[in-house]
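User: Sequence in, structure out. Go.
Assistant: Echoing your sequence, followed by the structure tokens.
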Amino acid sequence: MYCNFNMFDMTAQVIAVKEGSDNWPLFTGTFEDVCNFMATEYQTGKYERIVLAGPYADVVEDRTRAYAMTNYNNGIDMKIEVI
């Protein structure tokens, strides 16, 4: 999963990235919605990692991990890469 969050946009898009295939949109939402979606979707095991970009990627990472820890007891083990 990939997300480039920009605080000046009302919504951000989460994109599925698969090597050797076209990228496709998974979800569009607000900051909270995007973080919650990524944490929930990661738990399905369909994605190897979450890649975050943008000036607020660290904040998105923290919120995603917190949501996963609260709801799935799995925030620490998530593979999240900030670029």
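User: And one key feature?
Assistant: Residues 16 and 22 are 9 Å apart (CA to CA).
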